[in-house]
Amino acid sequence: MTQPDLEQSIRHCYSTWGDRYYADYYESDTAYPPVHTDIIRDLLQQSGASSLLDAGCGPASMLRDLNLPNLQRFGFDLTPEMITEARRVLALQQVPPSHIWEGSVLDAHAFRCPDQPDHPPFDAAICFGVLPHIPASEDRTVLSHLTNAIRPGGWVACEARNQLFALFTLNRYSRDLFRQELIQVDKLSDRIQDPTEKAALSQALDELDQRFRMDLPPVRKGYTDEPGYDEVLSRTHNPFELVAEARAAGLVDVQTLFYHYHCLPPMVEGLLPNAFRRESISLENPRDWRGHFMASAFIVVGKRP
User: Fold this and answer.
1) Which residues contact 116 (CB under 8 A, 6 or more apart)?
2) Where residue 1 falls among pLDDT bands split at 50, 70, 90?
3) Count of C-beta atoms within a 10 Å radius of residue 155
């Protein structure tokens, strides 16, 4: 898929979410608490940042909750409907409409405010909910753009879905991780030439598949005629590999912070919903090693030297 086609599919996917995304994923009683916003708020306060860029800001889901004293907030997004809602919400907090603009994280020019081209580099830049929709070959491009958008000594925080979480979920994502990343079935099959062994390998893989709930999680569809989240490019990332990409993009002091923990594999949540939610929230610790496997998302944080 070409970049224009890919970006159009993402725009279409999110086109109906502008006025409901925050309500569904931040305010709903069933939504997991936005602990990632708390992590960023702490980073902002600890660093004393006075300007923040949100690359892929959506309907200002995070920016609206980062209304800190003396913090200038800027953001851009690929989807026009998201931009409209972000400007509406932030106008209530006296953020100028020009601080929010339309742009792609694959375009270096998008990382500067069009109405303030001479604005100094930002103190901090965040990017949440974006990398899943970026081709693997462009991860470093996005990280480089984020790095170049901040001043020396400033910091970047980039979020991704945790691929290693599939070692805990025992569902269709686990099957994909086992086959594609761990076993590397195609390469293994090429190395095994004996017909009897090939047949045995096929049987072994079929038996392995029986260990996973292939019907879970349900495929997420769109609201009307637009494609749903699972019907467009929506990748997961290996934390170790993304840290390496962040360093290659020029960031230093890179660390991984985990969030959205699960106290049990999510397929059993319905058996004890209240305890599941309570105990999962109690696990929230960005630096707990178990986050590599029990947290569904993580943030790579690094500084520009």
Assistant:
1) 98
2) confident
3) 24
Residue 184 has pLDDT above 90, yes or no: yes
Run of H or E including 203? helix 195-209
Task: Give yes or no for a cis peptide into 217 (omega within 30° of 0).
Answer: yes
Give pTM, 2 decimals.
Answer: 0.96
More confidently predicted of 76 and 17: 76
Residue ranges of domains in the chain: 3-166+218-303, 172-209
Tell me the pairing of strands 122-127 and 100-102.
unpaired
Could you tell me if 125 and 149 are in contact, meaning their C-beta atoms sit under 8 angstroms apart? yes
Q: How many residues does the chain have?
A: 305
Nearest Cα to 150, choosing from 129, 120, 127, 130? 120
Give me the residues paired with residue 52 across strands. Answer: 73, 124
Q: Give CA angle at 81 (75, 87), nearest 5°.
A: 45
Tokens of 276: 């599941």
Q: What SS3 class is residue 286?
A: coil
The dihedral through the CA atoms of 192, 194, 199, 201 has a sign that is negative
Please enumerate in sequence order all residues whose Cβ is within 8 A of that of 202, keeping only pairs 6 or more positions apart, or say none: none
pLDDT of residue 117: 84
What is the tens place of the pLDDT at every residue in 194-246?
999 999 999 999 999 999 999 999 999 998 889 999 999 999 999 999 999 99
- Residue 269 identity (one-letter amino acid): E
Helix axes 80-91, 3-14, angle to 10 degrees: 50
Question: 230 φ, ψ to 5°?
Answer: -85, 0
d(CA 114, CA 174): 43
CATH class of 3-166+218-303: alpha beta
